[in-house]
User: What shape does this take?
Amino acid sequence: MGTEVDVVVRAADRPVAAFASVRAWFGTVEARLSRFRAESALERLNRGEVVDDWILAEVVRAAIAAWESTEGLVNPLVRDALEAAGYVDSFERLEGPRGSLEPRPVPNPGDAIELSETRVRLRAGRLDLGGLAKGWTVDRAAELLSEDGLAGLVNAGGDLRAIGEEAQGLGGWRAGVEAPGSMLAWEGIVVGGLATSSLLRRRWRTRDARWAHHIIDPRTGLPAEGPYVQVTVAAASCLWAEVWSKAILIGGPETLRRAQHAVDGILAVTADGTAERTGIFAKGR
Assistant: This one.
């Protein structure tokens, strides 16, 4: 998934089997949902096949729910727009100026996706499940630990899910959030999920010497522009923390206000370093 995954547990002995199951789980999802593997279930779907795969179906179902909840701001059908802007391969393999910034329509998932139990078909467009798939995978990895009776934290590049508590009486797991420039923006206790979306990561120069990034605004088909450059959200799950962090980054202050009822906290940072804080981020450091 283009990132390192850390698994931390509270246990008297090293739980080798639990670590192995989490590692295997991430490998399974990567094989099914990567857009950089030609034979993944996702890529077979994008080539026009009807695909029967429970993992793909579950993540697509979550993507549709995210699209509905965010009033279209998080749309899984941005693949064509993302590649047109230049994100055509795994980021670490990309070199030199690439892509161009021209508005393009993004299909409506309600019309373009046909979903029935474990079968998925696309009527239009192509899917990029990206960070949403990562959040979903992190949640289920943490649940694997819970099923083994373990308190634990699964962290995939800063998108994390906490189960139980790090130490007796702590009430959760200690975590911190870095602001742009590697300054510590917040530290405190996390219960549930945490995810960060940023316009400052995965950036590249286009062929016309402009800057592009990987967060696409489905209203324009272009990289998102707004007052925030980084948004962190705490929510009951990593999946929904990921969904709302991206939606707020795209939609700005109006979406931030709307999201407050659905999450446990929001930390939104502007280009000048000003931070808006709600919920748990209004407490602690």
Remarks:
- Residues 203 and 213 are 4 Å apart (CA to CA).
- The domain at 5-282 is CATH 3.10.520.10 (T-fold).
- Residues 16-33 form the longest helix (18 residues).
